[in-house]
Amino acid sequence: MQTFTSVGCTVCGCVCDDLTVTVDQGRVTEARGACQLAEPWFRAQNNTSPPAVVIDGQPAEPGAAFDRAAEILRTARYPLIYGLSRSTTEGQRAATALADRIGATIDTTASTGHAPSIVALQQVGESTCTLGEGKNRADLVVFWGSDPVVTHPRHMERYSADPVGRWLPNGRADRFVVVVDEEETETAKRADLFVQVPNARNWDALWTLRMLVRQPPPPAPLPKGKGEKQNQPNPLTPFPKKEGGTEPNTQTTELQAPVLSPSPFRGGVGEGLQPHPFTPSPALTQLAARITSARCGMFFFGSGLTRGKLAHRTVEALLQLVSELNDRGRFYARRMRRFGDVAGADSVLAWQTGYPFGVNLSRGYPRYNPGEFTGPNILARGEADAVLLVGSETVADFPPAALEHLRKIPVIALDSPGAEVPVPAAVRFTTAVYGIHRPGTAYRMDEVPIPLRVLLPTDYPSDADVLNELLKRVG
């Protein structure tokens, strides 16, 4: 029996690296500290041992599989390489080199998740920080369109709501947690304030919130001059109420509900956009008051903000709000990335090509155009004639037209043991799992690199090994 400490987990974007895993006779017997998503994932590594190589559904020799896959890629006129979020830096770099060699389009799973967020930050920038910075400083935590209790079970425990921070010695008691979502989620049940906003009205709510927090504060009393009497009233302070009379105007006004002009976008930022005006609810007004009184705030936003035809405009509104709030304190925004190393995939692709996802290399130099060069869109238009899947976890999220076309063209799949490819694969390579069978480097949702270590032996190659061999064979 062997016990491993400080083990990293890549099930979600938190990439928790504080787990203790016990291995006995080549099997994981315990994973202390693992959440409800990670526990079954660790134990599932004991249960499957599919063939290393499959051609057209039949086990085959590795040499024949490499020859068949290389021939598919070599003869394709518009090859697509997609996935990468279950890989590590080594595999992602090999995939980028292969895409460059064959003139392919390469895309990450960001195109089915936070692509609008990436486009938004390219337009307006992003005030952000690491999860550790937020843990130590943020006394206001806002989850917008995200349900981490379900999707990132240890996020609140380790990084946002519950942990003791350097300047938050009482942990949860020192924080005010807000959830903004279209329905009450599990996270909302644990929050101090729930603000209900339909996904189709997030853009309106964010712009209204920007207006609410811009309300000028009441003027401060002027400092007294040297010759000014101490009992002389400040001209900017309210007059005292006269006995038996009415209280004069104190220069404060009630907050009026904004009336916004009609949206210029047909269909709006989300599907089913309701007509204006958008009247702020008492909860949204309370959130504005909390924002203006917070010393440091952290906005975590998820897929609820990245849906719809113009979702990047919604994310832009949030990023601009956070940027403006830094005039009064420290405020940060952070995307809630879904899969273990999607942040690493975007980082490696940006390092190698200059762009984070949706990169076309058919002309011998990188071109970037979300929508034109993103995997689901290419497949939905029927343009790709061969696909290399480096992990297939988001293929089921593709639109029906993309899935239909994917079933008509040759697919080369690189996937871990037990993973189910939702479309028939001409060639499938079973690859080792990083952090279980192979070492590597994964990036947490805040782009902090986390080392992964070997827990179990395996005869399966890593995806980097397979990709490098394909790189040699395509010529």
From TrEMBL:
Superkingdom, taxonomy of origin: Bacteria
Keyword Lipoprotein: no
Any one Gene Ontology cellular component term annotated for this protein: membrane
Keywords: Hydrolase, Oxidoreductase, Transferase
A single GO molecular function term of this UniProt record: NADH dehydrogenase activity
Stretches for region Disordered: 214-260
The UniProt record lists the keyword Glycoprotein: no
GO BP field: methanogenesis; respiratory electron transport chain
InterPro entries listed in its UniProt record: Formylmethanofuran_DH_bsu, Prok_molybdopt-oxidoreductase
SUPFAM superfamilies recorded: Formate dehydrogenase/DMSO reductase, domains 1-3
Gene3D superfamilies reported in the protein's UniProt record: 3.40.50.740, Dimethylsulfoxide Reductase, domain 2
Protein name per UniProt: Formylmethanofuran dehydrogenase subunit b: Formyltransferase/hydrolase complex subunit B
Annotated source species: Gemmata massiliana
